[in-house]
Every structure is written in C-alpha cells, then in structure tokens.
Amino acid sequence: MKPRHIRILSIDALSYWMLERYLEEWELKNFQRLKREGAFAEGMIAPGPDATTPPAHAALFCGCVSQEHGIYSFEEPVIENGIIHPWKKKLGFDATRLKAEPLWVSFLKSGRKVLLLHFPLSMPLEPYTSSACFGQDFSENMVVIESFSQRLAPEFCRKHEQGNKTFTITLPDNSRIVLPASAPEKPEVQLFPSKLAGILKMRFSPDTPEEPDFYFGTSIHKIFCNHEELAQNYFDTLGPFIGGGAVYSYWKNRLGNMISRDGSGKAELRVFETLEKVAEHFLRAIQFGIQKVQPEVGFYYFHIIDLALHLWRGLIDPDCPGSSPEIRGFLLPLIRKTFVYADQALGLLMDATDKNDLLAVVSDHGMSPIEKTFYPNQLFLEAGLLKWDSKKKEPVLDQTYALYHQSNSGYIVINTEARGGIVKEESKEIIIKKVYEVLSPFLGTALEKIEMVSEHPEIPALGEIYLTPRYKVSLMSKVEGEIMEPGHYGGQHHFWQESEPMQAVLMLKGPGVPAGVGLGLRSHLEFAPTIAYLAEIPKPEKARCARIRF
Ligand SMILES: [Zn+2]
C-alpha cells in the first residue's frame, strides 16, 4: 500500500551505539516505541572516504558515492576552472554541485508535495527551480525553509557593561544593527523584522563576583523560504533562527575555563543553555512543518546532538586521558538531555503518523572520540616544504612546495605551477617523495594511512596525497608550533566509518515494514532505494544499490 505521508527525520550525529546503549537508561520513549513498531538497522556505515555531514547526507539521499554525487567534505578545496586552489576552501553544503538526483527530487518527479526543513543540500534553490538541473522547475510543489546558509552575522561573547553604551554590528548588506552594551537579565530576543532575523541575547554570571557578567548573542540568520508568506509566518510564529548556540565562543574559551582544563563546569553549563535554545527552536520548527506546511513528504533535520558530541565526545569515554568519573558524571546528563530533545522531535513526528504513513529516522554518521591533534603543516614547515606567514596565518604560496589543505578534508596538495604555485610538473614526483619521507615516521602514531590519490579510485581527486589519521587523532591545517599535541577531547566524524562510534542509525515504520525487526548492519547507499520502494516511486537515478529486503 502506498503510504499517504512520508516523514524523514535526520538526526545529525546520532550514533547507533549510543542510542542502543542508553535507550532504556535515558528513557527515550519514542525511540523505544519506534523500535518496537518498526524495523531498525543495527548500525549504518557511510561510504568512504569522508563521513562529514554533506557527503554523508548526499550518500543517504542520492544513494551513491562522492565521485558520483559531487559532494566531498564539510569543507572542500576550492576548484576554479578545474584547478584546485592549494589553500582556499569552501563549505560542502552546496546543492548547485549535486551531480546526482536526491530522494526529494524523486518525490517531486512523482508529483508529491515536499518540504525540506533546515535540511542539508536543500540550498541554494536554483538547481531545483530556475536552472532545472533535475529536469524541471519544482517551485510549485517544493517548500524549502532554511536558515543555516543565511547567516548575516556571527555570534558574540563579550563583557556585560552597565549603562547606556551601545555597539554596532554591520551586516553583509552594509546595514547596521545597534545593540546595547548591557546584557538583559533574562534571555531576550531582539527582532529585525525587515530582515526576517533576530538575535537571542543571554547573560551569564561570572565565576567570581568581582568579574563582569558574560554577554552572549547568537549568530544572526535570515529565515529563508521560497514561499514568502510562509517565511513571514515562520518568523512570526517561531522568532529568529539561532544557529549553533555558543559553540564557537566555548571553543575560543570565551565562556570560561573548560572542564577539560580544570574548569568548574560553568563554561559547559553556559554553552549548554544556548544549545537548549537551539533544540527548542528545532522542535518548534518541526511542529511548524507538520502543522502549517502539511507536506505529503517532509524532510526534517535535528542538530543539537552533533553540537554536544563535537564538544564532549572524547570526555565521556572512560579511557580518555582527559576524562574522570567526575567529568563523565557531569557531562553525561547534559548529553542525555540532547538525546531527550531528539526523542521529543521524533515524538512530534510519531504523533502525526498513522498506520498509512511512512516514518524514517536516519543519521548521517556517529561521532568518534578525539584525544590528540596532528599538524601536518607544522611538519612541512620544519622540512622546508612550506613557508608560513605567521602574521596573516596563511602559507606564502610563492615559497611553498606542498601543504595540508586548509579545508582539513584529508588532502595534501602539491603547489604546482598549474595551480599558480612553484613546483614544475617534472619535479612533482620529487616533492611527493619528500612528503612521504616526512610523514612516514608518523605512521602508526599519528597516521593510519598515507595514500596516493591517483592509486585509489574511491578517493576523489582533490589533491595528490590522502591522509587517514589514526583512530582518535584529529588533523588540523594550522601551524601552531606543535606537531602533535593532546586534543580538546571532543569528537569528530570524518574517518573510521566502520568503527562502532561512527556507525549511524536507521529506523523505519509504515506500510510494508515489519515490526520489531533488526536489519543487521546496513549501508547508507541502501537508504534511498529502500524509501523509494516503500513509497512506490522510482529510486533516485544514480542509486545503484538494492533496497533493504524485509
Ligand atoms: Zn552531520
């Protein structure tokens, strides 16, 4: 039977292992119910080499690998006229680069009304509309609400000041927003209605009474929707989109000393309070999607677990050198709350779902704990392969032979003349050999693999050499005076797709799906064909994998 409604919830970084481990203990009632009433994969593995959010979503929803769908990493080297820039980077969330049809297009082609809510790869809109990259202009049946890509200003964290002083934020259109330099006592939203944007201002008490209060303001994002009256309605109903909370300020130590560096835990509570505001916004957004948009097919996204695990995934591991029973006792209840919010998001969709509807919960990746950071560019600097401008914090490209690309997507790029650099074509092999010589001593400590991209067809050709760090080691492109140092004990999801912490989630219920059945370990590439089969539509064009058989 053809399902009437199809609802797909993508919960960023929900790891199968964690969900299973804490399903009962954390009383995740809606996940428990979905598991009873539907079928569930016992882990989902993203295709390699990169499991960051954009390529992992593209794999799930297009049913093919990076070379075929054209999305490579969270940040990618810039390619201009077919030439890789040795240093410049860009974000990987770009629908104009999708070379394969995603599942939402398959639904649109079948005449279904589709909503994409803050969903990766839904923007920009043109491929789906005016430029008709997928054969038609789908404007009429497609509703996209998206704000991540609509950032007008970054978050700030400053000292709370008494009195009537103000400060100014300049927006990309050169308009200015004047904000009071004194933070409100309680969280307060200030709206900029003409921009369909606003800011959430928060005040946190300091660690000691003699210090000034912290004044935090969220990043400013416009509410974008391709149906104008709906954008206005969203803004009037939900208020401003508040981005990623105070995550950046926390990393920059602006919210106080981190718990992993002898902090009291107050910095964590401060950032967590902002994450809860993010979660509340997403819950209300999902409700808005279900009730106000009422699509036949809805793609919903939920973000807060990813944010929290990036901060603390390492620290909740008992064998993490930076952890302790006290730290875990402090952080696990916070992580639990993020899972409870995700459970509530699922509950909203479950409540709207009856036996004629199809519901799927999926995640793009899990999260690996991080213990150390390795800086390949520091090594290249010391070996004379890289010249670094420490003032500008960038390489001196006319004196650099090879570098670990700033996109931090695993690639070492040779700075060839074709790329505007200094390495002649005939000397390329010599430089590659030198890079191997410099890196090889770190095999087994910092690095798991050093691979020639040309010898591995599964690695997209965005550089000459591809690095896979060892488990729990993070790579960074910065030059900071260390080659390897203990990490922040946070989390990352790039490599090691087959490891337990990285395996993702798939849960389904609806017509044609048996109840309470485990489906074993599955691949991301099976997701789109399976949903297409259950929804009785053709699978996405480039999805080659067979569907899951129940
Ligand atoms: Zn993700």
Account of the 3D structure:
The chain has 3 domains: 6-38 and 58-65 and 93-148 and 229-360 and 498-535, Alkaline Phosphatase, subunit A (3-Layer(aba) Sandwich); 151-225, no CATH class; 372-486, no CATH class. The protein has 13 helices and 32 strands. Helix 2 crosses helix 10 (325-351), helix 6 (228-238) packs across helix 8 and helix 8 (266-293) runs parallel beside helix 10 (325-351). 52% of the residues are buried. It is α+β, with helices and mostly antiparallel strands and 550 residues long. It is globular and about 65 Å long. The strands form 10 sheets. It has a 9-stranded mixed sheet, sandwiched between helices. It has a 4-stranded antiparallel sheet with strand order 9-14-13-12, with no helix packed on it. A 4-stranded antiparallel sheet has the order 23-24-26-25.
Which segments are poorly predicted (pLDDT under 50) over 5 or more consecutive residues? Answer: none
Q: Please state roughly what percent of the residues sit in beta strands, choosing from under 5%, 5-15%, 15-25%, 25-35%, 35-45% or over 45%.
A: 15-25%
Number of domains: 3
Radius of gyration: 24 Å
Helical fraction = 25-40%
Structural class of the helix and strand makeup? alpha+beta
Instruction: Report mean pLDDT, rounded to a whole number.
Output: 96
Q: List how many beta strands DSSP finds.
A: 32
The bound ligands are:
zinc ion
Q: How many H/I helices?
A: 13
CATH overall fold name of the largest domain: Alkaline Phosphatase, subunit A
Query: What is the approximate shape?
Result: globular
Distance between the termini: 15 Å
If classified by CATH, what would the architecture of the largest domain be?
Answer: 3-Layer(aba) Sandwich
- By CATH reckoning, the class of the largest domain would read Alpha Beta
The biggest beta sheet is recorded as: 9 strands, mixed
Strand order of the largest sheet: 16-7-6-17-1-18-30-2-31
